[in-house]
Amino acid sequence: MTEPDQHSERQLQADGVQARVEELLRRMTPAEKAGQVTQYFYFRLPAGAETEPALGMDPDAQPRAVEEALGRGGVGSLLFVTDPAEINRLQRLALAGNRHGIPALFGFDVIHGLRTIFPVPIAMAASWDVETIQQGQAVAAREARAVGIHWAFAPMVDIARDPRWGRIVEGAGEDPFLGAAVAVAQVRGFQGTDYGQEDRIIAGPKHFAGYGAALGGRDYDEVNLSDAELWNTIFPPFKAAVEAGAGNVMTAYMDLNGVPASASRWLFTEVLRQEWGFGGFVVSDANAVRNLVTHGFAADLPDAATRAMTAGVDLEMAIQDPAYAHLPEALQAGTVGQDVLDASVRRILEAKLRLGLFDNPYVDEDRAREVLADPQHREMARVAAERAAVLLRNQGNLLPLDPDALGSVAVIGPLADSRRDTLGPWVFDFDLDETVTVLDGIRRKVGDRVRVESAPGIPVVQRVFASMFDMFGGNRPEDPEGFDADAELRRAVDLAGAADVAVVVVGEWQNMIGEAASRSSLELPGRQLELLQAVVGTGTPTVLVVMNGRPLDLRWAADNVPAILDIWYPGTQGGAAVAKLLFGEVSPSGKLPFSWPRTVGQVPLVYSHTRSHEPQNQGRRYWDEPSTPLFPFGHGLSYGQFEYTNLTLDHSSIQAGETVTVSATVTNVGQRAGDEVAQLYIHQRYGSASRPVRELKGFQRLTLAAGQSQTLRFPLGPDELRYWNAATRDWVIDTTTIDIFVGGDSTAAQTVNFTIGT
Ligand code: BGC
Question: What pTM value is reported for the model?
């Protein structure tokens, strides 16, 4: 992988960008500058869409107000438009309304694909495959740029340790080391070595910082995190994304330790810019500047604008009535300095110039159509879905299925043939017709050789409280009048009973996960468990296929269903990938990016907890249920079988600041080829703080044929051995002994140790 070229100041000078920016700044009025630091949603909602009270806006007034603002040069950026013709039209309005010829920057939530939908981000993280992740976001960037989108509000790099929080699906899970690697891969995928190049867009890691730690997993609720947690757990993926050259960072909605994150000068100026040298622009989350008033923090909109801008928030994302429209008043009152506003405008103009927007503001609509239809993109999405799926259990090697030995398959469950759910949340520009469900995939795979029957088995399940995302077509129609739920269940169970094998596809519907989709329970919604139990009760060998973005309560299944395959929301080609996995054309190879709890009462549950004073009772912290995970962090089976041997070190002792190299041999002792993700964990025995029992500090994905071995090397240097210490309020490398564990999950047994001397 090539190192991204951070667009240095020298480079900007060489490109003449800085001179042009300064020239523009000299000519702009305060109102024009305020316009450049304002980003508007532009919504054309489907007829009849309910926007009240979720967004509090009038669907007609909103686009009208934005077009008026465009006409007077009052818009720096727009979001939520994906149609290239519409983008060109709005760009024409922007240029006609701006006497300096400054084009608008278009952003969008390109989270896991634009037209070609890849598996959801938590799934991509479960692949532990940085190349595939990078390629996936490169495809997303290519499609986005082709339609005129210049910037993705992604990756979401928030560490999530509480699966009640719906947005766990958008991130890389619980671990900062994995999270950082996934963040870097995504930034490189979106931006390449320079986002000014063809087919590239700006990456915007979000939400800085702490959003994933919402109290009780309740979206938007306050977050209280110690400095040690922030530096050791929450910040590493952000820092890694910044070091990879991310051009943008987004703020977070919630209060962090009592102060709205979106007005934290500490976060945006001291940590992000001063400590990490971030040179891009910061955008607020949607309405987060106005919301400083809602939080009971800012007195009014001018105060909100002042506080956000002086904290370091360059661009306000607003639905309507932006607070930054009050910046000219703030300048006049002296609450915001001219230099502060100019610095923000400068960053926005620099981004536009680097993107080449002044020279090339429009897109070619024919080319956009071609790029969106590229079959290679679908192929890559399918491979990603194959690599992301996690085989949780495979008792008696029920999987892979042999199509030649099967006469019939029953594909049961409400998610077996749901196109929209196969895609997952946070997609808007998808093509349902081309989406391959699990049922479609199995049918295509076995052709006429095997009889395939299917039934959903249960009635439609709805959220108790509707989602604001339902207005984008996510909600399901109610069952028809007179629907007989018991008869439907019986029909599905009879089909399963008569088949040679049953594949039961259950989980959460896509609008039950994501933003504003937190949950108080982890149970399978509706009568899905009952359906699964009845199918297994027929005695037909059953494969459970789980469609999810968070761990669900699978206690019964883990004891009673022989094979469990977690496919997440696998995207456009999801069903094709699942069929290949089920029938053994490819081996499952994903690994869990979080600890899978048994029950919601255990959360938050992480593998990297400290030892405590009774480590021997770690699994018995509750008297009613083991406190260990159902499946550990890093777990995932394969059709191959991997053994770890020869764990060795090149040094038994090092000085702080030096590096030790760990070697281990992995052998596929199974009968079939497969990929394995080898993982390295450390534990510091003693020092100036108690450190976690295990911390991931290295991983490598490798392909091994049956019988093949490979020796891996993992360097452990200052970056892996240091940590932020609450006592000294600084980074330390202690004098200590470090235990190392290498294996296929976070319970790896192979161990060796070394000392760090003074
Ligand atoms: C979310 C952001 C997203 C933005 C724009 C907000 O509600 O928190 O992650 O990028 O909307 O859609």
Answer: 0.97
